Amino acid sequence: MVLNYIWIAFFLIAFVVAFIKLILGDTEVFPNLFNATMDMARTGFEISLYLTGVMSLWLGIMRIGEKAGIIRIFSKLIGPFFARLFPEIPKDHPAIGSMIMNFSANMLGLDNAATPLGLKTMKEMQELNPQKDTATNAQIMFLVLNTSGLSIIPLTVLIDRTAVGATNPTDIFIPTMIATFCSTIVGLVTVSLYQRINLLDKVILAYLGTLTLFIAGVIYYFQQLPQEQVQSVSTVASTFIIVSVIVGFITLGWIRKINVYEYFIDGAKEGFTIAIKIIPYLIAILVAIGVFRASGAMDYVIDAIGAFFAVLGFNTDFVDALPTALMKPLSGGAARGMNLEVMKTFGPDSFAGQLSSVMRGATETTFYVIAVYFGSVSIRKTRYAVTAGLIADLSGVIAAIFVGYLFFH
């Protein structure tokens, strides 16, 4: 229901802003709105086509792992923690293994691998859903943890900073990790409060404590590396791990004497079905975002935020980076475009350029993830998923601003 109102608001606000601009003499605004609807509709279809191949690959690999028994291995490692966060999911259910793989891909900054694994997880959880059009507690917890964007290696951001000529492309590495960790913790706590999950449980505290120590260890390790080595080490590490997973699944299947090739084909077929399902949901959200941005409403929101903080006496240098933060919950591609635009305008080594990069890596594309993940299993009633996801996003942006001032200002 919340997503319904937000979707309507995008169009109505965009129309009102454009109409006022037209009265004031801007004759290009409505053609821009129309072009935005056509461009974003095409973009939504192209993304779904692109996802078809990627999903087929990863769903095929996951089917091999599932048949080879990797789910049981993952369940033993992380089962006690997930049993408390996802009490609706039975022990050793296939969704557990897919979920772990999805979170792992997200943490490594490998979006192409994370999306199909996330869609597979959502489909497997939907099998346990008694009300097929309404999101379950488990699905909401999974989605919000996804939208919080926990990432150890913001790979694509580092690559883009290199491309635009940043002196030290990896200077945003540690600030981004801190910001995204804050976003994830806030998202976890928010959903747990909705679902009345006991966060003081010894098992939950032990796993979260271990994760915190691991993040701290990664930060410490990369702090010891020369700046010029950080990106190369992170790139090699992330790609090595993901290729090792593919080879490991195939090898395990071979050892267990299953027909690896046939199971891969069987799993890959699901990619086409899911890709077709998500097309209308994807086009709906992207077109709404496109008209909102093309109308100029986004610019007015940013200007209003800057004026508000200026009145309160705050330093407003962070406002130049806000377009990236405001676009990230809506569209990853738009956020990337905003980030590149900020870096080109102010310079990749400027405060705005660095903070914009941290904001881009601190959270995920909430509305995109909700539209695609819930759309893939035809869920219309998202309950509090949007609210919890946006709270996590806001905390990530606030944390990014704080660490940005701490590290770069």
In terms of per-residue confidence, which ranges show pLDDT below 50 for 5 or more consecutive residues? none
In what range is the share of β-strand residues? under 5%
Report the helical percentage: over 70%
What's the number of structural domains?
A: 1
Rg: 21 Å
Order of helices and strands: HHHHHHHHHHHHHHHHH
Q: Give the termini separation.
A: 41 Å
* Tally of strands: 0
Describe the structure.
Helices cover 78% and strands 0% of the residues. With 409 residues, the chain is an all-alpha fold. The protein has one domain (2-408). Helix 1 runs parallel beside helix 11 and helix 6 packs antiparallel against helix 8.
Structural descriptors:
mainly alpha, globular
